[in-house]
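Justification of resources, computational component.

The compute hours requested in this renewal are based largely on the per-chain cost of generating structure records like the one below. Each record pairs the submitted sequence with a full structure-token output. That output is archived, and it is also reused by downstream analysis tasks.
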Amino acid sequence: MGPSLGCQSPALARRPRHARIIIGQYRPTTVSTSVDWRAVIPMAVGCLIGGAISPSVTRHVPGHALRILAAPAGLALAVRLWIAA
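The structure output for this chain reads:
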């Protein structure tokens, strides 16, 4: 299995040294925030519908057109979130 590195997982021991260091330095943090529970159901429904519809839509839309639509939408969202922050 390789040298013991003080970890419990044999899979972690097989990783390259730099990956073990990065994983070993991870410390989970707690973020306290409030959840707008009124938005949870609509977002869940939208995710389920979008997940069901998007594979068939993306099969029929040419890749170039999809990129032309997605890039400006992502940029606009990034700018909007940056301004709101």
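Residues 43 and 49 are 10 Å apart (CA to CA). The longest helix spans residues 63-84.
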